[in-house]
Design goal:
Shape: globular
Strand content: 25-35%
Number of strands: 19
CATH class of one domain: Alpha Beta
Helix content: 25-40%
Length: 429
C-alpha cells in the first residue's frame, strides 16, 4: 500500500495544530474532518489562555482572530429567587501580552486551517473515518467508505468520544460519569452595547461563570463570554446526572431556565439569537484518559481527555494546541528515523510530561470527583445567598450582630459532618 507521511483525523485545534506543524516540517499530511468545516461542530464557550501555547505556535498565535482580551472575571451563585454576584479584575490584565482571550471557534479554527493549508497541509471536510488500517500490527492508515488511505502515522484528534481510540484498543468504552453535554447560544449585539452593558473598554472582555440552582442540583454550571459583537451563553451538565435526575429534566429545558433567569436575561436582552448548538464533552480528566500511543498512532486533544474543569476556570484549548504540536513533533522525529513503532512514538508522552499538559492534568486529576458532590450545587449556594440576605435585610426587629448572624446561618447549612467530608475531599484539588 502506498503511504503518505501522516493522516490527522479531526479538524479541531489539536488536529489543526498537528497538521500545521507536520506541514511546516515539510511532511505530507492530510487532515480529515467530518463536519462541513474545521470548527463547525465545536461548542466551546470559549476562552483560551495564551501564555502556555505561545512556545508551540511561535510567530502566529498572537495574530489569531481572537475576540476580546479578558479583563474581568464574574462569578454568580444562584439560588431560587436570589443570587450572589461578585467580580475580580486586575489592571495587569489590560496590558500586553494579554493573559486570555474570548474566541469563536469557527473563526479561530478556520484561521488555523488557513495557516496549515498555506504550509502545504491538505484538509478534506465532510470526510468520515470508518476504520483503521493495520500492517504488521501497526496502524497504517484509514478507511473512509470504500476508500483506503495509507499513512506512516495517524494522529487521532477526533474529539471527546474518539471513535478511533476505541478502534485502536487504546480506551475502554466511555462511561456516562466521564461525559457532559454542553449547550450554547450565541446572541448578536453591537460592540458599543456590549461595552456599555458590561462596563468594558474597546477590545476588553468579561468571562462569567454561574453555579447553583441553574443545574437543579446536578453537576455542571453556566457560562457567559463577551465576544466582539456577540455573547456566548451556555450550560454544561453531567450526562450521568441527567440520566439519574428527574425524568422531566433535560439539557434544553435547563438552558431555557438558565437564560430566563434575571441574572442572565439582563445581559442578553435585545440580542438576536444567531446560533444554537449542543455537543458531548469530556469531564473525566486524566483518570479516564486513553493510552496515548501505539505503533503508527498518536492521540491528542479531547480524544486524549485533555480538558480541565476546576469550577472557577475551564481549560481545554491550550491543551489541545500544545498536544497537537507535540504529537506532530514526535511523528516528525519518528518519520526522520523511519521508526513508527510503539517504542519510538512513546516519546510523545515524555514530551507531554515535560510540558504543562500532563503536570496540570495530574495536579487536578481528582477535580471531577471533588466537584461532583451535590452539596456544591444546592447547599452551599443556598448558604451563601441566605447569609447575604440576612446581612442586608432590615426588618421590624432589632438586628443581631454580624458574627451571630453568620454563625446562625452557618450552623443551619455548613457546620456539620457533611461539610467536613467535602473539605477533606477538596484537599485533593
Amino acid at each position: 500500500m502506498d503511504k503518505i507521511d501522516a493522516i490527522v483525523v479531526g479538524g479541531g485545534l489539536a488536529g489543526l495544530s498537528a497538521a500545521y506543524r507536520l506541514a511546516d516540517a515539510g511532511r505530507q499530511v492530510i487532515l480529515l474532518e467530518r463536519g462541513d468545516a474545521p470548527g463547525s461542530k465545536n461548542v466551546t464557550g470559549g476562552r483560551v489562555y495564551v501564555d502556555p501555547i505561545r512556545p508551540y505556535l511561535p510567530g502566529i498565535i498572537d495574530s489569531a482572530p481572537f475576540e476580546r482580551h479578558v479583563v474581568r472575571e464574574m462569578i454568580t451563585v444562584l439560588d431560587e429567587g436570589s443570587a450572589l454576584q461578585f467580580e475580580y479584575g486586575n489592571e495587569r490584565w489590560k496590558k500586553e501580552p494579554f493573559m486570555s482571550h474570548t474566541v469563536l471557534r469557527a473563526k479561530l479554527d478556520g484561521w488555523l486551517a488557513e495557516q496549515a493549508t498555506a504550509k502545504g497541509a491538505f484538509i478534506i471536510p465532510r470526510k468520515k473515518v470508518d476504520e483503521l488500517l493495520y500492517e504488521d500490527g501497526q496502524v497504517a492508515g484509514i478507511r473512509s467508505g470504500t476508500e483506503e488511505i495509507g499513512a506512516h502515522v495517524v494522529i487521532a484528534a477526533d474529539g471527546a468520544l474518539s471513535f478511533l481510540t476505541q478502534k485502536a484498543g487504546l480506551r475502554q468504552p466511555h462511561r456516562p460519569e466521564n461525559l457532559a453535554v454542553a449547550v450554547k447560544e450565541i446572541y448578536q449585539l453591537d460592540e458599543k452595547t456590549i461595552e456599555e452593558r458590561f462596563g468594558l473598554g474597546p477590545d476588553e472582555g468579561l468571562a462569567g461563570l454561574f453555579m447553583g440552582s441553574v443545574t437543579r442540583g446536578m453537576f455542571g454550571g453556566g457560562f457567559l463570554y463577551t465576544n466582539r459583537d456577540t455573547l456566548s451563553v451556555g450550560l454544561v451538565v453531567g450526562i450521568d446526572s441527567l440520566i439519574h435526575g428527574a425524568g422531566d429534566i433535560d439539557a434544553p429545558g435547563l438552558m431555557e431556565g438558565f437564560t430566563g433567569r434575571p441574572e442572565v436575561e439582563r445581559w442578553i436582552r435585545g440580542g438576536e439569537l444567531r446560533e444554537y448548538s449542543a455537543h458531548v464533552i469530556s469531564e473525566a480528566g486524566i483518570g479516564a484518559a486513553p493510552k496515548l500511543y501505539r505503533g503508527g498512532m498518536l492521540v491528542a486533544g479531547d480524544a486524549a481527555g485533555f480538558a480541565l474543569n476546576l469550577g472557577l476556570t475551564v481549560r481545554g484549548m491550550e491543551f489541545a494546541i500544545a498536544s497537537g504540536v507535540m504529537a506532530a513533533d514526535t511523528a516528525v522525529l519518528a518519520l526522520n528515523e523511519n521508526d513508527l513503532s510503539e517504542n519510538s512514538l512513546s516519546r510523545y508522552e515524555k514530551r507531554l510530561r515535560e510540558s504543562f499538559v500532563l503536570p496540570d492534568m495530574e495536579t487536578f486529576r481528582h477535580s471531577r470527583e471533588v466537584l461532583d458532590r451535590r452539596r456544591f450545587f444546592t447547599v452551599y449556594p443556598r448558604f451563601m445567598c441566605e447569609l447575604f440576605d440576612e446581612l442586608f435585610t432590615v426588618g421590624d426587629r432589632p438586628k443581631e450582630g454580624l458574627y451571630k448572624t453568620a454563625k446562625r446561618v452557618a450552623k443551619k447549612y455548613v457546620l456539620n459532618m457533611e461539610t467536613l467530608k467535602d473539605l477533606l475531599a477538596a484537599r485533593r484539588l
